[in-house]
Amino acid sequence: MATVKRLIHTNSAVNQLMKKSTLNNFLICHHGQQSLYKSSPFGYLSQSRFCIVTKQQKELQFDPLQPTTFTNRYNARDAEGKVKLMIGDYTTYSKTFSAADIQKYSKLTGNFNPLHDTIDDTVARRAGFEGTIIHGMFTTSIFSAAIGAHFPGAIVFEIYSRWSKPIYIGETLTGYVTIKKILAKAKLVVCDLVAKNQDDIACISGKVTLLIKNLDTEDLEKMRKKKREQSQETK
Hints:
Radius of gyration: 22 Å
Oligomer: single chain
Low-confidence stretches: 1-58
Strand order of the largest sheet: 5-7-8-9-6
Mean pLDDT: 79
Number of strands: 9
Largest sheet: 5 strands, antiparallel
Distance between the termini: 28 Å
Helix content: 25-40%
Structural class: alpha+beta
């Protein structure tokens, strides 16, 4: 399996890469076009985005037939940029929400609901809360971060979320995104969403459907089942 690295290069960055690298050949993917280059011609590859796939073959550091992280799947994509996914694959992201974060979000969105007032929490307390609460939509951004940070190119097709507990200033949320269903022909991936606070209490739940245009339609679940059957036959 080829080792894959996605990098955004300037001339200097490419030159530094080549000086440090012991590899002579690279497969360059630019807007879907592939070309094999040697070390020397890298000088003109400025102001463009490239997917650099080393031709050196290395074994994967994880079992491809078992659930793993989005990062592992993305890094294991083939030379064409296609990626295999399976039910149970997951990604996570954590964030502590500060008063400054709320102020910035309010300014960006124009949502100055007094429930989110970081200076005076009177309205929030009168509404039955323990203090100023974080904007609901702001808290769900951890799911977007979890997906975008570890699976570049994924597109949110549909999302649903439900809040079971308010999130207050200074609290830390950890979002978990776990694949539950893969619609290979449509290249859609349905995931469960759960966000827990620093006390491991679930505050948000929901679902998201992702459009993965570079999804490899090979059925990893069938591969895993076949491997299990072969293992049983050898016993």
